[in-house]
Amino acid sequence: MRLLSRFLKKALFATQCGPRSLRRRSKASGSSASLSPCLESLVTVVVFAFLLSNAVHFTFEVAHSGAFKPSVPRHVWGHVNASDPPPFPGHSLVSLRSVIDGKVSLKFDVADPVYSEDYDPEAHCSAPRLAIIGIFTGLGPEEAVRRTYLRHKYQQMNAKLPPHLQIDTMFLFPRPVDSKDASFQVNKIQVDLEKSGHPLTTVVRTKTTGRGNWEDTLEWVQIGRSLSYLPHPSRPHQWCQRYRFLGKSHDDAVIHLARFSRLLGDIVEADGVYNAEHVDVGREEKLHFVGKRDYEGLNASAPFLWAMSLQIAEWIHFSPVYGLQAEVLMDDYKMGKWLSKSSLNTQWSFNETEFHDYHTQNISSSSVVVHQCQSREAIVKCIDELL
Fold it and tell me: Which of 137-141, 254-258, 340-344 has the lowest mean pLDDT?
């Protein structure tokens, strides 16, 4: 409540509608006509504060119910001493394995998980979760509405999936632009509210830009990579894999997590990593990129949802990105083009009908993700019809 009170004061100051400003305006004009813009601003501020307070209230309801327990450890966010070992490897865990027909294959140096009943958490790596998805969001009231709906629905759906098929979602905020303008204080308080209400699923990026920039995507790949490992419980200097895939989405896209989990899970099972009883039957290092083709003839996914094998994210994190800064392409197209140029032996899985826009195709029982659910009416309809 203290944060909300600060938010209201800063917002009213930013709109020049505080008590002192109103008295000055009234004396200058001699009438109440000049108050109407302030009434409009006040309504906007109160509605936005109401949405934020509801989001915080909902957060603690879910946390206390125990329905959703994010697997991201708190120490990932820097709550450790500088002398402590890093919570993620500082060196690359992939190395060149072979080159066949000009395609590069990778060796992944992580400890094998144990799937059998004699699994001992003090001695073995547990089965990795299926994926971690970074969802780019913004600081406006429409984004706050969409984000509140999506957090609620994703937490409900994920809790119903088995642990090894769960998909964790992280909301990625731009860093508020530092300035003397009061709007900076409003944005900063909003981000502080999100961090305090959702400490394990909120990421504040170093970039102040939105979501259409190659550097934004690259930064998320690097952040997501740091969240994708845990130290081995009994073997020093070895690492457990926490996720099989790393992906990206936007807050105006609604994902049916169970269907997306089934899609990714089928790929993992087809690779022979585990069978239906999920007994480990051997690791085969195949690389996958899953999304929707958006440019004819170009291996590039539409930006509203894609996922790549963690090995690819590991490769990107430690590999130079050649000649892409001058390319006149959006971030996700650059990602696909860079992967094509890298000669990684990637298996591309493009879903042309299951991944679609809200306005171009009816939502059906086969829809995995629906994009462009931007207005409040659209996001409610997308969620109701898809989930």
Answer: 340-344
